[in-house]
From TrEMBL, chain A:
It is a multi-pass membrane protein. This is Putative symporter YwcA. The keyword Iron does not apply. Keywords: Cell membrane, Membrane, Symport, Transmembrane, Transmembrane helix, Transport. It is found in: Cell membrane. It holds the Pfam family SSF. The chain crosses the membrane at residues 6-27, 52-73, 79-100, 121-139, 159-177, 189-209, 247-269, 281-306, 340-366, 387-407, 413-434, 446-468, 488-508. Belongs to the sodium:solute symporter (SSF) (TC 2.A.21) family. GO terms for molecular function: acetate transmembrane transporter activity; symporter activity. The keyword Nucleotide-binding does not apply. One of its GO terms (biological process) is plasma membrane acetate transport. It comes from the Bacteria. InterPro entries: Na/Glc_symporter_sf, Na/solute_symporter, Sodium:Solute_Symporter.
Automatic annotation (TrEMBL), chain B:
It holds the Pfam family DUF485. Residues 1-34 are annotated as: Disordered. The chain crosses the membrane at residues 98-116, 128-153. This is DUF485 domain-containing protein. Keywords: Membrane, Transmembrane, Transmembrane helix. It comes from the Bacteria.
Amino acid sequence: MTGEHQTLALLLFSGFVAVTLAITTWVSRKRRGSAEEFYAGGRLFSPMENGFAIAGDYMSAASFLGVTGLIALFGYDGLLYVVGFLVAWLVVLFLVAELVRNCGRFTLADVVAARMRERPVRIAAGTSSVTVSVLYLVAQMVGAGSLVALLLGGTSGAARAWTVIGVGALMVIYVSLGGMRATTWIQIVKAVLLLGGTIALTVLVLVRFHGDLDQLLLTAAGRSGHGEAFLAPGLKYGGDWTARFDFISLGLALVLGTAGLPHILSRFYTVPTARAARRSVVWAVGLIGGFYLMTIVLGFGAAAIVGPDAVRGSNAAGNTAVPLLALDLGGGAGSTGGTVLFAVVAAVAFATILAVVAGITLASSASVAHDLYASLRRRGGKPRSEVAVARVAAVGVGVVAIALGLLARDLNVAFLVGLAFAVAASANLPVLLYSLFWRGFTTRGAVWAVYGGLVPAVVLVVLSPVVSGSPDSLFPNVDLQYFPLQNPGLVSIPLGFLAGWLGTVTAAEVPDEAKHAETEVRSLTGAGAA
Amino acid sequence: MQPSKGRPPRDGAGQESPVERLDGVGPAEETGHLRYDDPWYDALASGWGESAGAAVPAPEVVPSARGEGETGVAAADVYLEVQRSAAFQEVRRQYRRFVVPAFVAFFAWYVAYVVAATTAPELMARPVLGAVNVALLAGLGQFLTTFLFTWGYSRHARLRRDRAALDLRWDTQELTRGVNGGVS
């Protein structure tokens, strides 16, 4: 790419960074340093603000870059991701949002620990939350890396590495200084920018085809080289049964994973009541649904206008389809319009990554400080401020994510997010649903549910073709592949539920009737909610 | 409809027939020291704000229930009482009546979609109109049903649950506060 692209994109992006840093400083100016403020932003956001922030948290680089890339490369099979991402919100809305808002204070573990022996449950839920967050963070870091590789031309390893490190450093600053309030405002700003950018591009694509969607689809199919097959399922996940089961596995993980994502759960604590939590989900569903409908147009648009070959040539996994599309829509490389549009899209994508990364880092630092540290520190030791611990944890999580992000740079971003969803659905969702709805659930059941989902999910990923045994693996030269599927959800999600059930029925512990009553009454009425 | 199952006397009015409550009709007058036409106002008027820290409407009694020692036991009884009350059972029934069928419906529809996409690509590839085939229609259908379910759920919750749940919330907090001796 030319120097103009770089300069303009960097200028715009610096503008975003400056604005967000300003927000962070402004927000933290009269900070009192309470946990309530740091984790939940004082719980005083309106449903609309929180709806935008949820959308900002959820519409990650995986959707903007990864999914559009998958649609551009594989047609309809990319669209299946989008459907899963959206339908998942019904699980959140029906079973989780209001009840979690009513029962918990800051984290997932709060909900479970209210009914159980606190320490083992907190350690289990904290561990799985941190694992999910780190996986999700890696996906965002990889997105940042491939974006900058495109922006700076070539695949200069050093530039990528520095971008990933820079993103990591920025997010640590946001989170440790601004806490939830700054993070929320950054999400809101980012959601508006991202929706604005997406709307602009969608309109341009539609204008290019004179509003004729049929023509758009036919052109995309024609250029793809697959013809009609491009518009039907099967290009990526057709073929042998391994691929098909892989897809079903992914589909399950997507729809059940969202409700177990720690950074999504923590968003519900930023509004005052369960009713506000519900209304923020309604806002979010509207925004996210609209956004995904547009990404479908953008994906097919990229296939029709840029062409799958050019997309693949720029990034094998398709992560750069949208910036390339913007370049073309603006008038092509070298034109002013193309330069501006490309720079805008690149800056928006950066902003997206930065904001999502901040949200996840905050959630995982909450898990570390509120759940793990609070449970593991030595009794009688001098208690340190939980918020101080959370700030340190943010730095630690950042470092881990940076390291893994550098390692995983050649994987498709949407696919990596699929893994994070699978782990969330296996480890977090069973324990959450059992705690909310099952009268006889016990401490042992809770602990088993978490580890019974977490361990298989992680082990199956390690033994999968993602890590070793095939040319596209992280370590192509090693062969540890014993599990055929890339996404473990199909096996690990049922295992999580099964382990929770098994742990409960084998426990000698008598389930505490009164604690269940408390959870049920609190979850449905909001009595005693923080 | 008789509420009292040995619950503390002061909440007698709180657990009257939920139907009356939903209709905005005040609870039975025989005990008559609590009214529910305006839960916010009445909750305050019925002693909600009397204890220390009255300036904060947020519940000071957050029954963390952990480590609250002697009062924890009594608070637990309150929750059991509330759980058995007719009003609460009604809220729970209303919640389940929508959520269970709706969850089954959308989940089955989604799984059917995913399975069809993987096992019956020929069916999904059948053209309908121009470039649009069954698969695209099904995908857009998923979007449409998601929006509809969202709308339906939030409407149902607003009309059938919110008011009763709010009443119960104040009652329950009132009770736990009473149990904890008004100290927060």
